[in-house]
Amino acid sequence: MAQARYVMAYRGAYDFARTPAEVWEALGHAEEFERWWWWLGELRFDDRGLVPGAVLHGLVSPPVPYRMRVTVRLDECRAPTWIDATVGGDLVGPATMRLASTGTGTRVEVAWSLEMMQRPMRVAARVAKPLLQWGHDRVVEATVEGFRRQVEAGGHQG
Hints:
Elements: E1 7-16, H1 20-27, H2 33-36, E2 40-45, E3 55-60, E4 68-78, E5 82-89, E6 91-101, E7 106-116, H3 119-152
């Protein structure tokens, strides 16, 4: 019998009232991420910026009773239009981000398909998938709103 996969897939699009270059510039300030987002801790990052091979390490603590250690490696990227990344650790899989000018700002499209690797998370996915989805969606909402506040206030200066 094949082992079941426990994947959290997501696709979303968000509009920002800044240019792609301004949004990209704010994304490059990983040293600010813990201050911006309550759910992220123990962040270590590569000082090279948003370039292929750069790596971020962190602890994700969503509003449900589990924590996940993750590594995000930037596989390919081109300023200020796209990033393709691989997530590793307690969540594993591909993630993408696309930025496009809307004429009045930027549309950011994100997508990922992350397999939960921790046994307790797999068990939770079997018995409480709606709870996991709820926690995931709260983290995404908090991330977008926190990032929007920073970008629209002028980047990392908030």
